[in-house]
Amino acid sequence: MRFLSRIYAELGLVYAAKQYTFAAASIALRSEQPEVKPVTAHALLEAADLSYVAGNWLDAAATAHIAVIARTQLLHDPFDYETYPDLQRLDMAVLTPLLAARTFWPHIESGLSASLDEAAPLFQETASEVAAGIEWSEEQFQQSVSDQLRGPAFADTGSTRTIQFALLGTAWAITCCNDRTSVLAAERLTAALQILLPELVGEPTALLAQSVEIEVSVETPSDENDRVRLQPSNDALLCSVCLTDGNDIADPGELELELTSIATQLLHLINVRPFGELHPTIEKIFRRGLMHKLHVARPYDDLVGILEGEHYTRAAALTRPPTSFEPTEHPALAAETSPGPGYDHSQSLEAIRQRYAQAHRLLPKTLPQLLSHPGVRQMVTGLRQQGWLDWQILSTLINVTGNIRMTNAGHLLGPGTTPDVAQKFFLTPERADDEPISPEAILAEPIDFHLNTMVCAVANGWGLETHIETPNVNALRELLTRRYGFGVDVEHLDPLDSVREDGSLQPFLV
Predict the structure, then answer these.
(1) Is 209 in contact with 197 (CB distance < 8 Å)?
(2) How confident is the model at residue 132 (pLDDT cuts 50, 70, 90)?
(3) Cα–Cα distance list, 362 to 222, 365, 367 (Å)
(4) How large is the average pLDDT for residues 462-480?
(5) What CA–CA distance (Å, rounded) separates 384 from 389?
(6) What are the distances in angstroms from CA 458 to CA 132, 151, 367, 372, 470?
(7) Which residue has the higher pLDDT, 295 or 479?
(8) For the segment 368-410, what is each residue's pLDDT rounded down to a tens digit?
């Protein structure tokens, strides 16, 4: 258990590590073998260190206090540093928060001392000896925390708690009320995600690299299928999650099913492959023993819930220090960069060539006017500076032109648009007697909207589909670039140099 905890901790998955560490402590404490019981003291010290690494420094101090008691009862000469080098973890988990509170946030020190209980005087004396030598500014200290730890300093203070971690390109932020029941529920969900998501490495998924912000509440919804509720946003996945109070369930199996159901729903929402494709992967992960990994010895709340409600009340009353902490992921768990499921590079290059040929074939009258117009040329230059490639810009101009022609003819583009109408306005070449669409009309269009439409069309071409009504198109574009050749181009003539002196359009492909 402790070995697995260390692996999760090295990967930055602190709450999964915490679950396994407390499982080791629980099993050792209940063991009938005297030589096993001392493991409890060591595991509790490791748990205090994990809380410290997570930025939950009041939790770390309170857990360290319990670990000190366990050491005095279970170990011989429990504070001999030569015999027990892990005592350095105790110093780090307690002294660093004490020094930080004393130096930068004095209003927190009393709460920290209360968490340490009778062990406080010993650490306070040492902290006083060291504090005089600190020369860091608050900003420098916070930067050091961000560089070395997995959460901001005193993340467990304030009326709410937010757990932050990054995994497979996704930045997670799980927020809950800072009370015992809510915190244990939020940590339970976090640990489950940190155990499940690494199982996806190497599997055929297409996960969006985006922010996922979850508001956790402890309640029983009227409909069990309504435990995950989406909130509209085009910039992140925002949702609320209803979790059951761990004390209200007699059968641990019910809690396991709830966790796996919610975690799987969240996975569906960040994966943009079709729903049906994920099911074989989930089944494969379950066959590898996912349920045994999620449920270790006892339910999460029973294992980890060693701190009383008073501790959380005290933490909630303290003001959290300001921070700009951003979670980072372990390199082994970074966003996948291999070609995405369904992607074919040669097919991608051919599709790009066809887009250049299509632009030349469909808009022989409109494009020369657009590409000669100063305003359009300035727009194209600006889009290039934003990272858009020429084939993407030309494809968007085709769509904008077709949309204008369709609107002028009294049609509205939407789900009810028939294939023959779409064919007429978007895929039929301009005729000699057609009026070209003016540059002014193009410049009046919301170009960002049309670019996003183009991104979604390319994604659909690779079999990708978003499962929310307000998709994060920027994240979809990033995924396409990272795994579906969206950042690739073919040799072509610069569109801004493609208009001949006689006003005709040269082919883009060379």
Answers:
(1) no
(2) low
(3) 54, 9, 9
(4) 94
(5) 6
(6) 60, 37, 22, 27, 17
(7) 479
(8) 999 999 999 999 999 999 999 999 999 999 999 988 888 887 7
405, 424 in Cβ contact below 8 A?
Answer: no
493 Cβ neighbours under 8 A, 6+ residues apart: 506, 507, 508, 509, 510
pLDDT of residue 418: 64
CA 428 to centroid of chain Cα atoms? 43
Tell me which residue of 413, 392, 390, 393 sits closest to 402, measured CA to CA: 413
Cβ 389 vs Cβ 485: under 8 Å: no
CA distances from residue 16 to 20, 302, 315 in whole angstroms, order as listed: 7, 15, 23
Amino acid at 106: P
List b or e across 135-147, with b for residues whose CB sees 16 or more CB atoms inside 10 angstroms: eeeeeebbeebbe
- Can you tell me the distance from the alpha carbon of 28 to that of 45, in angstroms, rounded to the nearest whole number? 14
Q: How far is it, in rounded angstroms, from Cα 213 to Cα 233?
A: 11
Highest mean pLDDT: which of 52-61, 90-99, 253-262, 417-426? Answer: 52-61
Burial class of residue 433 (count of CB atoms within 10 Å of its CB; 0-12, 13-18, 19+): exposed
Can you tell me whether residue 412 is helix, strand or coil? coil
pLDDT of res. 99:
87
CA end-to-end span of the chain? 62
Structure tokens belonging to residue 263? 């975690």
Q: What are phi and psi of 229, to 5 degrees?
A: -120, 120
Q: What is the pLDDT of residues 241-273, one digit of tens each?
A: 999 998 877 677 788 888 989 999 999 999 999
Both tokens assigned to 219: 């309640």
Nearby residues of 457 by Cβ (< 8 Å), 6 or more positions away: 399
**What is the pTM (predicted TM-score) of this model?**
0.91
Which phi and psi angles does 171 have, rounded to 5°? -100, 115
How far apart are the C-alpha atoms of 310 and 317, rounded to whole Å?
Answer: 11
| Pairwise CA distance, residues 238 & 215, whole Å | 8
Q: How many helices (H) and strands (E) are present in the chain, helices listed first?
A: 22, 5
CB 199 within 8 A of CB 315: no
For residue 55, give the DSSP letter.
Answer: T
Give alpha helix (H) positions in 31-119: 39-53, 57-74, 87-103, 106-116
CB 55 within 8 A of CB 145: yes
Look at residue 334 in the predicted model and tell me its pLDDT: 95
Distance CA 441, CA 154 (A): 55
Q: Which of 122, 124, 41, 117 is nearest to 77 (CA)?
A: 41
Q: Which H helix or E strand runs over 404? A: helix 390-408
Return all residues near 131 (Cβ < 8 A) that are at least 6 apart.
Answer: 99, 102, 103
